[in-house]
Design goal:
Layout (H helix, E strand, L loop, with lengths): L1 E3 L2 H9 L4 H12 L6 H7 L4 E3 L2 E6 L4 E8 L4 E9 H5 L7
Parallel strand pairs: 1-5
Antiparallel strand pairs: 2-3, 3-4, 4-5
Length: 96
């Protein structure tokens, strides 16, 4: 899949350097993934959830959350937000 864009990942790990390795790992795994729908995506990312039109990925052993919109027909992942688990629990990401 094509990931649009890597910038939110880089910005996040600039503030949370410990997140760089797990986010890079997610990026490469997603880059080489192919899925026609959410069910197929779950075969690669078994902890992914679908919430209100967004796909939520658990990254780094459930330490981080990555929110994305996926267009399966064009094989594109649009990264919307990257946050810590605590930030995700506050639900501010839904208002952005």
């Amino acid at each position: 899949m094509r990931i649009i864009s890597k910038r939110p990942l880089r910005e996040f790990w600039s503030f949370h350097p410990e997140s760089k390795e797990p986010l890079e790992s997610w990026y490469h795994k997603a880059l080489h993934a192919s899925a026609a729908n959410f069910a197929e995506l779950r075969q690669t990312f078994n902890s992914a959830d679908y919430v209100d039109g967004f796909t939520i990925f658990d990254v780094g052993g459930n330490s981080y959350r990555l929110v994305a919109v996926i267009h399966y027909n064009t094989q594109r992942i649009y990264v919307r937000n990257v946050m810590t688990h605590a930030e995700y629990d506050r639900n501010h990401w839904r208002k952005q």
